[in-house]
Amino acid sequence: MDKIDEIMSKFISELGYKEAFEMFLKISSGKKLRSKLLLKIAGESEISLKLCAIIELIHLASLLHDDVIDEANIRRGKPSINALFGSKNSVMLGDILYSKAYFELTKFDPSIAVVVSDAVSKLSIGEMMDVKMAENFNENEQEYLKMIYYKTAVLIEATAICGAKLAGKDSEKFGIYGKNLGLAFQIVDDILDITQDEKTLGKPALNDFVEGKTTLPYIYLYKSLDEAGKTKLRSLWAKKLNADEILWLKENFDKTSSVSKAINEAKRLGNEAIEAIKEYKNAELEGIIKSMIDREF
């Protein structure tokens, strides 16, 4: 992954603006899950590493904008760029990363460039959808799934498709793998917000609901409740919860098996992803899915 960091730094230093480069160096680079996915599909080469760097710049740009929207002061355990340099600089740095990524993308085959650029458009729409959906209690499962596809899964899907194109593999099958990996990843993340404690999460449990996010387990819960229960659940949405309210939620999650239903949906998506690429017998890609869905929740 050091090679990808070097290429990213080279891209930004080429712009010749010291202040932007210094801000860029303050970004916590993260686990590079998309790069690891691409390299597991296409293998390591000059072209695959450059594409990884482009995709990571796009991902970082989206996180810079995300932190401004959420007014988040911490990113991956470190001060966010907006906390260090202000929201204006964070937005502009995100724009620089997006623009440089697109410039480098123009040097690739159009079949690669069109997949990535389309994904970025959808990613941006996904951000808007997420903000809009947080304005009201959402009970629509399909709207939720479309939002997480755009916001989370679409760039992972694009990464898998591009990896397959570089390697001469079936891009449609790898697209299914990438899309389902992204969807399952987000659903699992939403589940852990409910089932894990603050120490494990690094943030308060049930924080998504407090912030106005009606994730899949809450949608399943809502559908399972009687009218009085539905009214109660709506009354708890987007507010700080006391101990009794938290207990009510957890008891009803258990009674209705709503969390279990969400876990089963994540597992269904994961198994469908493995099935899509089974002919390639890629144990590492299968392992990514299995480690995510075959776990304690």
How are the strands of the biggest sheet laid out side by side? 1-2
> What is the CATH superfamily label of the largest domain?
Farnesyl Diphosphate Synthase
Give a short account of the largest sheet. Answer: 2 strands, antiparallel
Mean pLDDT: 95
Q: Architecture of the largest domain, CATH level 2?
A: Orthogonal Bundle
What count of structural domains? 2
Helix/strand-derived category reads mainly alpha
The share of residues in extended strands comes to under 5%
Report Rg.
20 Å
Question: Helicity, in percent?
Answer: over 70%
The span between the termini is 29 Å
Low-confidence stretches: none
Oligomer: single chain
Q: List how many beta strands DSSP finds.
A: 2
Helix count, DSSP H or I runs of 4 or more residues: 16
Give the SSE order as H and E letters: HHHHEEHHHHHHHHHHHH
- CATH overall fold name of the largest domain: Farnesyl Diphosphate Synthase
How does the overall form come out from the CA principal axes?
globular
- State the name of the first-level CATH class of the largest domain: Mainly Alpha
Protein name: Polyprenyl synthetase family protein
Cofactor: Mg(2+)
Keywords: Magnesium, Metal-binding, Transferase
GO molecular function: metal ion binding; prenyltransferase activity
